[in-house]
Amino acid sequence: MEMTGLQIFKYTPAAKKLPKSNCKECGCPTCMVYSLKLAKQQIDIDKCPYVCEELRQNYSQSIKHPQKTIKIGDLKIGGENVLFRHEKTFINPTALAVIVDCSKSDYAEKIKEICEFEYTHVGQTFGVDLVILINTDNKTELSFQAGRQCSSVYENNGLSHYSLSFVPRNDINVLTIEQLQQLSLNIFEEQDFKTTKNYLIETRVKAILEKDESCSAPVCVVMKNDDIYSQCARAGFYLCKYANMLIFEEFDKDLLSTLITLRHNIFTDPQKTLQVDSGLYKYNNPDENSIIFMTTNFALTYFAVANELENLDIPAYLIIVPADGMSVLTAWSAQTFTPEIVSKFLDELDIKNKIKTRKIIIPGLVSDMIEELNAQCPDFEFVEGTKDASDIGKFVKKIINSNKVISQ
User: What pLDDT is recorded for position 406?
Assistant: First the structure.
């Protein structure tokens, strides 16, 4: 594991109370600052002329990257340095690849279908990362170009390249199986689940904890082509622990969409909040009398609510309040979603003069805020909404059917 600043500091003259303590010869004001910078690799270890050999050896071992990073165009595979996401973060999302057999008559149509596949999740669009061609022998008419050319791979390895007559996305790559095998990847054909699971875990543990160079190559699992539900369950586990790439023999949109959703959740940096821009969002061409909803700027909350509002048959507004990217309950607990903040933001948006509607629907999870909100924002009346975004449609229909007015 990487050494911390305090672990490094123990070896410095200041920690040992030697004559050269905090001498500033390294360019830092103190040995502690030097140690902290060294831990973050922001300074060269040799900047300190008094560094001991024991620290040099331990530090050299600690910064040794446990897993290689392999690049295929813009796609990065591997490069992980922790076993668990909460320790720091996972770096490069597990790549999803599909094999296309060029000996089959419909291979070109299959490539086109794969390249054009797109799946949108929380505002981002994803697809297959890599197409792997097999049985390309005697295909003199083969000419492929899918998005950007993998120039770095081809130039470094002397590989030929293929081009397609269409350019569906700029983030997908096409390689032959022979080209893939030339890369420094550990290609493992899936066996039974237990064997494959144990192999992935043991290989990652050796790479991360023991920094075993024989286990430093990113691991690619070639999935068995069997029952789609069993395949999805196994692939989901391998994605979490610890496949760097999953290779499928058949293209299945539902399977890939499920894995993309899981992958996005697993490879989200836990140290960064997912948030969207605060402001006033419009759905279905609202006018000054349309219904108004409100929530925080946590990305997952926003997209869940936005999806429901887009599917409503009525026009609506959504006010996204700045809350440091926190979910509704978390923001309320952390005092980043308060009546005072809401009041100030409504003034900034000038809602009172832009929209005639005076009733604002807030998440049901924070209905306890309603009395304070009404007192803090006397120009508006706050209404308790649903606890789950999925219930918004039913909530609105119920109000409409009961002839309750929520847009005045």
Answer: 61
Cβ atoms 318, 293 nearer than 8 A: yes
So where are the chain's domains?
5-62, 70-266, 279-401
**What are the E-state strand segments in 141-257?**
173-176, 186-189, 219-222, 245-248
pLDDT band per the 50, 70, 90 thresholds, residue 196 = very high
Token pair recorded at residue 272: 């960064």
The class (CATH top level) of 279-401 is alpha beta
Is domain 70-266 classified as CATH 3.20.20.20? yes
Q: Residue 270: left (phi > 0), alpha (psi -120 to 50), or beta?
A: alpha
Whether the Cβ atoms of residue 288 and residue 355 lie closer than 8 Å to each other:
yes
The count of other CB atoms within 10 Å of the CB of residue 141 is: 6
Q: Is pLDDT above 80 for 163?
A: no
Instruction: Extract the tokens encoding 343.
Output: 């009041």
Question: Do 244 and 218 form a contact (C-beta atoms < 8 A)?
Answer: yes
- Tokens matching residue 356: 């005639």
* Cα–Cα distance measured from residue 277 to residue 321, given in angstroms and rounded to the nearest whole number: 9
pLDDT tops 90 at residue 151: no
Beta 245-248 vs 69-72: how paired, if at all?
unpaired
Fold match, 5-62 / 279-401 = no
DSSP secondary structure of 266-314: HTS-TTS--B---EEEEESS--TT-EEEEEE-BHHHHHHHHHHHHTSSS
Q: Residue 353: pLDDT above 90? A: yes
User: Which CATH superfamily is 5-62 part of?
Assistant: Electron transport complex subunit B, putative Fe-S cluster (1.10.15.40)
Q: What residues form DSSP beta bridges with 359?
A: 381
Instruction: Give me the count of residues in the chain.
Output: 408
Q: How far is CA 23 from CA 11, 13, 38, 40, 203, in A?
A: 15, 9, 16, 21, 44
- 């350019």: which residue's tokens? 167
Q: Residue 76 corresponds to which tokens in the numbers above?
A: 């990065």
User: Which helix (H) or strand (E) segment is 99 a member of?
Assistant: strand 95-101
- Report strand pairing: 245-248 vs 219-222: parallel
Q: Would you call 51 helix, strand, or coil by DSSP?
A: coil
| Separation CA 201–CA 186 (nearest Å) | 14
